[in-house]
Automatic annotation (TrEMBL):
This is Pentatricopeptide repeat-containing protein. Belongs to the PPR family. PCMP-H subfamily. PPR repeats lie at residues 5-39, 106-140, 168-202, 269-299. Keywords: Repeat. GO terms for biological process: RNA modification. The keyword Disulfide bond does not apply. GO terms for molecular function: RNA binding.
Amino acid sequence: MEEPNVYVYNALIRGFVRCSSPVSALRSYVTMSRSHVEPTSYTFPSLIKACALASAIGFGESVHGRTYKGGFGSHVFVQASLIDFYSRSRKIKESKRVFDGMRERDAFSWAAMISAYVRVGDMDCAAILFEEMPEKTTVSWNVMIGGHAKAGDVESAASLFDRMPGKDLVSWTSMISCYSQSKKHREAIETFKRMKAAKVSPDGVMMATVISACAHLGALKLGRELHLEMNRNGCDLDVYIGSALIDMYAKCGDMERSLLVFFKLHEKNLFCWNSLIEGLAVHGHGKAALAMFHKMKREKKIEPNRVTFVSVLSACAHSGLVNEGRGIFESMTSDHSISPGVEHYGCMVDLLGRAGRIEEALQMIQAMEVEPNAAVWGALLGGCKLHRNIDVGGIAVKELMALEPENCGYYLLLTNMYAEAKWWSKVAGVRATMRGRGVEKDNKGSSWIEMEGVVYEFAACGASHPQTEAIFSVLVENP
């Protein structure tokens, strides 16, 4: 075009922004200015967004000045864009100054300012502004729920969610993700069921999140139902849903289905490989886990990371593959330039300890390049218990008592070792130490069971289940 007009430039700038090419959008504006084509109010929202995407703070500030010079400083959409621009640049005071200077505010402007506070983590100011908002929109509700979720404030997010008059897919997704990220997987599944009852159809992101929650709870039946539902609806098995299914089946012990999903996927990411290798390792298929690791390396499409090596070394430990584990541990540095972390040393100590090479495991700990933590010493103590090596076990317990003095498990493990050796005086000594330090046996462990699509949690000495009396009566009748 020989002489493109302002409408052409506006379309071009907006197009570049939508295509995530903000620098090209800014260049188009420069060309437009040099061609003496005057901007309109439709020019600035896209242009300001381009400045935000490109982190061009100075450019954005000059555009802000240009809006006043051109008489567009009072336009609502322009001002809302400026609020968003300054908040993305972490200049919350400038955002508030623009907001306070607005003669008229629409719902988009209020939502933009609330989002600005949420973006910088100031949920108190966001909440005050939200309550002052004349007419709350779905977007503003979602912004607040998402902000509380990001801050880990599950109670505030749930309170807003329950108050929200009309929930859309974003609302449900935000709340379910909030529960999942806070490890409240049962609540995530219950919220998903409420969403289904409300006739809201989930998308791929939602399905992946719920399937992940099923994995953590061991809710295999519900996970299978979701998988079947996706198949019936003709949903494409993309890498995100596929990786979630692989992980869910692996964590629930259904390795056959996990492998089936894995080999059906056309595209596999690192999480897919890691989930499958870890699942095989945990369920005692050490050699199969090693075979998958070597297959991954042969294909040369994805490089293993630190998590991959933890899973492979764990597989070697569970299957007693000492030589293979040593070779893989050495290859981390030599072939993949990954320095072993405390978690990798923990796997090696566990491997050597299970194989009865207690002294060798102790030497590895003493030669570690990083400070050993409780997991490393705990792995050594586990090997000592297995092979009744009380001397090295005592060393491990002393280290563990210094690292975690209130953890009763290590004390109890040591007393069991002394009791097996009939060293009753030492048993009494450890128990006296526990009493002196105020260490008591706790009951933090809990179990889940899935029945008819509902996951129930049971804790030792707990009575939260509605049928507790009936359950206890069965135990009384069948001692």
